[in-house]
Design goal:
Number of domains: 2
CATH class of the largest domain: Mainly Alpha
Keywords: Cell membrane, Membrane, Transmembrane, Transmembrane helix
Oligomer: single chain
Main location: membrane
Membrane topology: Multi-pass membrane protein
Largest sheet: none
Mean pLDDT: 87
GO molecular function: transmembrane transporter activity
Strand content: under 5%
Protein name: Putative MFS family arabinose efflux permease
Distance between the termini: 24 Å
């Protein structure tokens, strides 16, 4: 990648046609914080209907399942289109592509907030999902192009922190707005926020040229790497372990008679997530395998605490904190891990990982639903057992692949 002269840091921005010299630039907290705001918009765009489901159901005059479908179709579009569209847009300047995606997020959310047509809302959700499918892997590769290799993990961690803050902070705020004012206001605020971030990105984000798609950086070439498959398997196991139970966290809180209810459970979970993201940023580049083992162990201990102590005061609260710790770096760990397995085509590699991540969420929710339907006597604890059964092989695999994850 060619490099050009860069203005001083006092200027606060880079010209549209300039590029970073990746071996001379440390982490810029402003630049990467701005990138984190993009992932913040991405995760909120996906999860918004789940926080204001009753309001949307009443406002649109549809069934709850139809509003729930708006979350599922977004994730499905992300999973299906990530790999082909990342490959098709690999040559596009990273900044230009990101601005197009932010425009897509802004328009889709604004239209949802303004229309009463359910089919049009579904269409906008599909457009938002397509933008997310491109954004998640692309922005990780964009960020790593701005720093030397020994800071790749830290860069991805900061960028993906937007995901954690979106779940732990953004969604409760948007839900509050949707409940207090109206569900349409939530979407309009999110759309306006996306437009504002697009303007800031246009002014401050550096330009990074795309790359030509070749046989060596195609999805097929990436999937020929055994180490990539190890990361994909770990992604599947970890996502199913977390999301199967998290999907029914409200039911879990009710089943264990958790003192403080779902609001306190989510607050403690969010605090744990934020703590783990901050800590992982410091060690992910030097102790990736140790971080993955620790996070998987925290997840399994969480589920064991639920099984053996149920809602016992103190133990249950500790369980939600540990769960948050385990959940926080989930996206970051495996995007960093798969990125380390390739020297080029990082966007393609992370798109493959992102697709597996999204498909794994769908698998998790589907299997969890089957457990609740077919094993009513076990209830939500059947899902907790499923989580444990996924955490165990994930920990074993991580312990065995020292060379792969420590590379």
């Amino acid at each position: 990648m060619s490099s050009r002269s860069k203005p001083s840091h006092a200027q606060g921005s880079l010209s549209e046609n300039s590029t970073y010299e990746q071996h001379q630039n440390p982490i810029s907290w402003f630049i990467f914080g701005l990138m984190a705001s993009v992932t913040f918009i991405g995760i909120l765009s996906e999860l918004m209907p789940s926080g204001i489901l009753p309001q949307m159901t009443e406002g649109l005059g549809v069934e709850q399942t139809q509003v729930g479908f708006l979350v599922g179709i977004y994730a499905l579009a992300s999973a299906i289109f990530a790999i082909p569209l990342i490959s098709m847009t690999l040559w596009v300047n990273r900044k230009v592509l990101l601005l197009l995606l932010l425009t897509g997020f802004a328009v889709s959310n604004l239209v949802v907030g303004l229309t009463s047509s359910y089919p049009l809302i579904v269409t906008m959700r599909i457009i938002g999902g397509i933008c997310a499918g491109i954004m998640w892997p692309m922005i990780a590769a964009y960020g790593t192009a701005l720093v030397p290799e020994n800071l790749h993990g830290k860069a991805i961690t900061i960028i993906m922190a937007g995901n954690t803050f979106g779940v732990s902070l953004g969604l409760p705020i948007m839900t509050f707005i949707g409940t207090l004012v109206s569900w349409r206001t939530s979407f309009l605020v999110l759309g306006a926020l996306g437009a504002l971030i697009a303007l800031l990105a246009a002014k401050y984000l550096p330009s990074v040229q795309g790359e030509k798609l070749t046989q060596s950086n195609s999805p097929i070439a990436v999937l020929k790497i055994p180490a990539v498959w190890i990361v994909l398997i770990l992604t599947l196991l970890s996502v199913v372990a977390h999301y199967s139970t998290y999907t029914y966290i409200t039911l879990l809180v009710e089943s264990i008679d958790f003192v403080g209810g779902i609001s306190l459970a989510l607050l403690i979970f969010g605090i744990g997530s934020v703590i783990s993201v901050i800590l992982s940023a410091k060690i992910i580049d030097t102790h990736l395998r140790g971080l993955i083992v620790a996070m998987l162990a925290c997840g399994m201990i969480t589920m064991l605490l639920f099984v053996f102590f149920r809602g016992t005061n103190g133990f249950a609260h500790l369980a939600f904190l540990l769960w948050g710790l385990a959940f926080g770096p989930l996206v970051t760990m495996y995007q960093t891990a798969v990125s380390k397995q390739v020297t080029e085509a990082k966007a393609v590699a992370t798109s493959v990982q992102s697709s597996v991540f999204n498909f794994s969420i769908m698998i998790a929710t589907w299997v969890a639903g089957l457990i609740l339907l077919n094993l009513p006597e076990v209830g939500v604890f059947g899902i907790v057992y499923l989580s444990i059964l996924c955490f165990i092989p994930a920990i074993i695999i991580t312990l065995l692949v020292k060379k792969t994850l420590d590379a």
